[in-house]
Amino acid sequence: LAGDRSLVNVVAHELAHSWTGNLVSSASAEHFWLNEGFTVFAERRIVEALAGAEVAIMQAALGRQELDRAVAGFAEHPELTRLHVHLAGVDPHEAFSIVPYEKGYLLLRALEEHVGRARFDGFLREYLGTYRFRSIPTDDFTAMVEKLLPGALAAVDSAAWLDGPGVPGNAPVARSARLEAVQRACAAGAAGLDGATTRGWTPVEWGLWLEGAAALDAAACAALDARFGLTAQKNYEIVAAWLRVAIAAGYAPAVERVQSLLGEVGRMKFLRPLYQALARHDVALARRCFERWRSGYHPIAAQVVS
Q1: 50 contact partners, CB below 8 Å, separation of at least 6
Q2: Which is catalytic among the residues 30, 36, 66, 101?
Q3: What is the average per-residue pLDDT within 277-303?
Q4: What is the mean pLDDT of residues 284-294?
Q5: What is the secondary structure of the chain as a DSSP string?
Q6: 211 catalytic per annotation
Q7: Pick from 160, 58, 147: which is nearest to 107 by CA?
Q8: Which one of 110, 268, 278, 304 is most buried, by most CB atoms within 10 A?
Q9: Which residues contact 257 (CB under 8 A, 6 or more apart)?
Q10: Are 9 and 47 contacting, i.e. CB atoms less than 8 angstroms apart?
């Protein structure tokens, strides 16, 4: 789709929903993490099989950065960062975020790390087989874990994951040589980023760098853009991450580019942070863009952005 196979993980995610989210579904929006946390877990196992463990690890690290940003965005409503949320009086669309995806994934990874992959894979097969063609609450998940993996819930402090806000301190940490190389590039800053460092970088590595680098000013953005052509990038994963950073810096070409980009893409993953960045820069301009393009958005995306 993007021309560089960088969206294989998205295809894997949506295919995985045939099992996690469709074959076994959450009973309501309060248990939405059962759909998305399991599907992110399956997605990264598929990516690992196709592209290797390091690529899956980098995608997990990028997901963790996005999760931390989402949790910070709910600072006034930390209860919406629980996995098992309580939505009485709350529009589920207002509560929508990356939290059930990435926090749910991390809970499953914590369980996998505790019991080992072989045992956890056995649990997954039993889980899907037992609950197929059913919509279930979180209690059904915990009951099966306790039955098949006794003691595992207590070992990972599942209550903190399911009913507590934010990300528990025992969350698994992504580690790999390629990830560490990107982290070193982040520490070196924009001035140290050159063609030799970025040779062979995938959109995931660019995303990690743009998420992890220190705040840039307009001059640094101009230098990076001249070096790497980021504003003209055709890969939305890269250009969306870049525009968030560059708009915050007040870099004029980025402000110009985002106005057309918002009419090209409809994924909420991109729309919400781009509108947030543009609104912080110029709220009137963000409103004009939204009125111009909203008729092309899915109704849920339009509601979340508005």
Answers
A1: 8, 12
A2: 101
A3: 95
A4: 97
A5: --SSSTTHHHHHHHHHTTTBTTTEEESSGGGTHHHHHHHHHHHHHHHHHHH-HHHHHHHHHHHHHHHHHHHHHTTT-GGGGSSS---TTS-HHHH-SSHHHHHHHHHHHHHHHHH-HHHHHHHHHHHHHHHTTEEE-HHHHHHHHHHHSTTHHHHTTHHHHHHSSS--TT------HHHHHHHHHHHH-GGG--HHHHTT--HHHHHHHHHHSPP--HHHHHHHHHHH--TT-S-HHHHHHHHHHHHHTT-HHHHHHHHHHTTT---HHHHHHHHHHHHHH-HHHHHHHHHHHGGGS-HHHHHHH-
A6: no
A7: 160
A8: 278
A9: 231, 239, 243
A10: yes
Q: Is 14 a residue of the active site?
A: yes
Q: Are strands 134-136 and 24-26 parallel, antiparallel or unpaired?
A: parallel
Nearest to 204 by CA among 229, 226, 230, 179: 179
**26 CB contacts (<8 Å, ≥6 apart)?**
32, 33, 34, 35, 135, 136, 137
Give the C-alpha separation, 198 to 80, whole Å.
Answer: 37
CB-based contacts of 18: which residues, under 8 Å, 6+ apart?
none
Q: Which amino acid, residue 231?
A: T
- Write the CB contacts of 140 (distance below 8 Å, at least 6 apart in sequence): 131
- The Cα 79–Cα 220 span in angstroms is 38
**Per-residue pLDDT tens digits for 28-73:** 999 999 999 999 999 999 999 999 999 999 999 999 999 999 999 9
Residue 161 makes CB contacts below 8 A (sequence gap 6+) with 83, 103, 106, 107, 110, 168
R_g over Cα of the chain: 20
Are the C-beta atoms of residues 249 and 219 closer than 8 Å to each other? no
Nearest to 67 by CA among 113, 11, 105, 28: 105
